[in-house]
Design a protein that fits this description.
Keywords: DNA-binding, Repressor, Transcription, Transcription regulation. With 328 residues, the chain is of the alpha/beta class. 42% of the residues lie in helices and 19% in strands. The chain is elongated, with a radius of gyration of 25 Å. The model has no long low-confidence stretch (mean pLDDT 88).
């Protein structure tokens, strides 16, 4: 037969103390004598007792859970974010409750509603835009909402944004430096706000400099979509530069150029990405890209969680150009 978890009542019986004494022993700051504490801890060790955190949530009506909602979790950018964020939360004594929004299509509201039921202390949205009604419910229930790379026209929401426009401008200037005459800007069919900001800023700069721009959009934000973009765009021999709004798209584009379209990189076509995912630095790619610091992004999210300020805080993650081998 399956054995149930050891209960506080069993610990109290073994230690010869009251049930409330066991509770106080495992409650930080609670009053309990040294003798009682010693008895309770000894009994807990012998029985293999562990505190029931879920029961504590019911008593306190608030947990130390931080809800994290995101889609495309296998993406190198998202997985790196999750890695650093989950470690940071544990170091702050908080727990990460991850909900995959891949099946939520465009509406992540049901997932956030589920986090309310777990009495989450705060909610971090990695991808997707919550409806206004959900934002209002977060505010009404005292649940801090933090959006990453999503901009809402509100005064009561925390947002952490990469400096997309400046990053796209850096990419454009690098391709201008490469003397590109006709360039492609590659986005996925997901058309996220961050991708749109990057594509718009890049196109505006190139057009201001008199450089022809060809836009391509399609598929999910994936390596395969980048490959498809390379196959379709590089049929045009005049295209001698490309800005892919994510590194994952850029790596696919780069492989299509070199391995399928017989284009030398960077001699025939210069390629710049955005994000600086770990794979961008692999020797087989050496992708020139715009980097947003994963560490800085994580630190800004954690600082937003700890902030007592009720008003909105828009924090911008600075970006830099990382020179490698894919731009002339």
């Amino acid at each position: 037969m399956a054995r149930t978890f050891v209960t506080a009542e069993e610990v109290a019986k073994r230690a010869g103390v009251s049930r409330s004494a066991v509770s106080r022993t495992f409650t930080p700051g609670a009053s309990v004598s040294k003798t009682v504490r010693r008895k309770v801890l000894k009994a807990a060790r012998e029985l293999g007792y562990r505190v029931n955190r879920l029961a504590q949530v019911l008593n306190n009506d608030r947990s130390n859970l931080i809800g994290v909602v995101g889609a495309n979790l296998s993406s190198p950018f998202i997985s790196k974010q999750l890695d650093l964020l989950s470690i940071g939360l544990l170091r702050q004594g908080k727990q990460c409750l991850l909900l995959n929004a891949a099946d939520a299509r465009q509406d992540i509201a049901p997932l956030i509603e589920l986090l309310f039921e777990f009495r989450a202390q705060a909610i971090v949205v990695l991808s997707g835009e919550p409806p206004a009604s959900i934002v209002d419910e977060c505010i009404a229930n005292g649940v801090r909402l933090i959006l990453i790379n999503q901009r809402l026209d509100r005064t009561d929401t925390n947002m952490v944004l990469s400096d997309d426009s400046h990053g796209a401008d850096l990419a454009a200037l690098r391709l201008i430096e490469s003397r590109c005459k006709k360039v492609a800007v590659v986005t996925s069919g997901s058309q996220t706000p961050a991708q749109l900001r990057r594509a718009k800023a890049f196109t505006q700069r190139m057009q201001a400099e008199g450089v022809d721009v060809v836009a391509w959009s399609g598929g999910p934000t994936s390596y395969e979509s980048g490959v498809q973009a390379g196959r379709e765009l590089l049929v045009d021999k005049a295209i001698d530069g490309a800005f892919c709004v994510t590194d994952l798209l850029a790596l696919g584009f780069l492989d299509a150029a070199r391995l399928e379209m017989n284009r030398r990189v960077p001699q025939d076509v210069s390629i710049v990405g955005f994000d600086d995912i770990p794979q961008a630095g692999w020797k087989s790619y050496g992708l020139t890209t715009v980097a947003q610091s994963f560490q800085a992004l994580t630190e800004k999210v954690l600082s937003a969680l700890d902030s007592d300020e009720p008003e909105t805080r828009m924090q911008v993650v600075p970006v830099t150009l990382v020179e490698r081998q894919t731009a002339r």
